[in-house]
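Hey,
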Amino acid sequence: MKLKFFLLALLGVMATAQAQNSGTISGKITEKSNNAPISYATVSIKDNGKVVSGVNTDDNGDFTIKNLALKSYTIEIQYIGFRKYIGSAILSENKKTATVNVGLEEEATQLKGVNIVAERSTMEQKIDRKVITVGKDLTTAGASASDIMSNIPSVNVDQDGKLSLRGNDNVRVLIDGRPSNIDPAQLLKQIPSTSIKKIELITNPSAKYNPEGMSGIINIILHKNANTGFNGSYSGGITFGETAKYNQSLDLNYKTGKVNFFGNAGQNFGTYFNDGRITRLDQDVNQKLNISNENDNYLYKVGMDYLINDHNTLSFYTNQNKSTGEGNVITDIDYNNGDPDIMNIYQKSRYQGPNKTGTYNLAYKHIFKKEGHTLDFEGNYSDTKVTQNASFDTQTTRPDNTANNIIYSDVIGDQRKLSTINVDYVNPLNDKTTLEAGAEARVTRTNNDYNTGNPSVPAANQISNYTYDTDIYSAYVTFGQKFKKFSYQLGTRFESYKVAANLNHGATKFDDDYITLYPSAYLTYNLNEKNVLQLSYSRRVDRPSLEQTKPIREFSTPLVTSYGNPELRPQFTNSVEVNYTKTLEKGSITAGIFVRSINDQISRTLSPDPNDASGYKQILSFTNYDNNSAYGFDVSLNYKITKWWDIQPSIDFSSIKQEGVVFVFDPATSTSSPLQRSVTTSAFNARMNSNFKPTKRLSFLLFGFYRGPVNEIQQQRKEMYKMDIGSRYTLLDNKMNISVRFNDVFNTMRYAFNGIYPYPQTGQFTWESQTVYLGLTYNFGGAKIKNLQRKQREDNTNKGGGGMF
């Protein structure tokens, strides 16, 4: 016993002696331009060129390295998009602690008081998201946010502007962490590309995020400005296609004392053209579509931040979105089967109507004395009104040249009101432990009126009203701890969801009410200072939208009519991911794999119209398929080969098992029968972005894209590919940029498919993919930068005020 006691005492003395003969280096890493903390920067401690220890900075930019021998060290600090810092620190008997506070400089030239977009885009893997810092190479891609999205790894944009992430279009789009009443495809076309600072891909969101979106969240962070004095920027561009399209935006900011005023105005307008053809193979029926959309969109924003004191900030803004448009569709259907009772159809349809959305936001932030300890309250109200006046002129001609003409109109009125109140609380219990909690109430009210003069619709159904209301109340808590090489975060979100749908003032009702838990977990292991491995899990939901549920015509052609399905059930997804990040001397590489289990998947259906005796007309709608599974991977590289040449290649692959019911049409009996079918749908995408900078002012870019063929449950989509080239020139001391980009140089982009069910058909759609974009950006004003902290909803980071949204 005495021997054991002696050994324990000896070990204690040795440990105490070692502690007394060791030192600690700590500090804080920030952005030099605005003192904002830099999370996950790599700090390496070297002795004679050899790494002896290292860590990543925490969420507040802080780091601590203990148990270092008392000697001189070299300190290297790296973060993607910033210049490497090399310094030194000396530990001795008289000075066993050293503090290193460093402000990193961005790689791009910085103008005093004006935000200059970085030369090249960078990509990094954080604990719960992949962050793409948008450089000039991406803003040169086109006029709007929609134009640059196809350049982002794992993100695809179809010919209608609809987004998908990792091959799945069930993705939630946020602007500065906030949802919008505006359809994402429309919204992204209205945001100037030069207004975007970062794009976050949150493929496996934690419990602190609302759980919508099977494939995750795309959060677009716009430039903020909180510089003292007056400053701003102007950007404008022209896209040359079949006709010219124009865009422009003006950002203004004025900060004096404790008040920061900001405003923004943006506009884009032009006519866009699409052409398509669909051929039915078993009946020799040809359908040609000629589509044009003339759009005129406006964005206005005005707001202010008031810094009550160093611990309290009050913010308010209102954002107004207005758009007018006219869509024209010419449909020409030829029947070549010789049937004397079948008429060829030529239809002109026109869709007109203004859309208006007003958003009002009030936020309050309290910063406690302890660093990182915050409390946030926020209220948000959004009101959208959409009016569609549609006219249809249909001419039918029989083989004997007898003709008939039907003219009628439709009127659709939509109104959507979204009210949100939330509170978020963050408390770093100590330097290794963080507790986060919050609650939210989200109430949505929608109303849809439909009035048609279509003589084929029974009089009782020509006027209808549909309402779809949801009430969501939720609360979340997350708890995380960080150790030397290991960190974890556990969380769960409790949510009460209620939906009530009514057709024709209660004649037909549909209600759903359930309570659900959405857990999440993150485990991160730092193999060393340059290699990080992460395992994560989350549960998510996709709820049916208004468009997916309303049993009222969404759009119509002579052969296809779109309706919603009010009995759609929510779709739940359990997702597991493994991500790996390696920091290289001249860049970084990120890779990830994922597996998903999907219950009651919501998908499109195309089935014969039961009210059509000829068997030619089809109904486009939605249904819940059986339980499915999915898996995939993505790999991205950001590498600077030389001082004048850098590349960003990426590939991603996703595979999903689809099971559901399709219809098989029998032309002999003009009847359809259901068929249970199962397929494995795989999608492969590859991108290569290469930037060349022969001089300080002149740069060139080359971009290539390939999307492989996809076999779906009802059709087979063919491959897509293109190549873009561009150039950019800076002048006036980097205050002005002129850029030009030639998109789809060889005019190869098209959407083509071979349909199998309900009958064999083939089709192809083309749009103005081959265009030339000419853009200009000018920054003016400037003063001393003073960061004004302001919480951005669902981002849990502090940023300056201002910007577009």
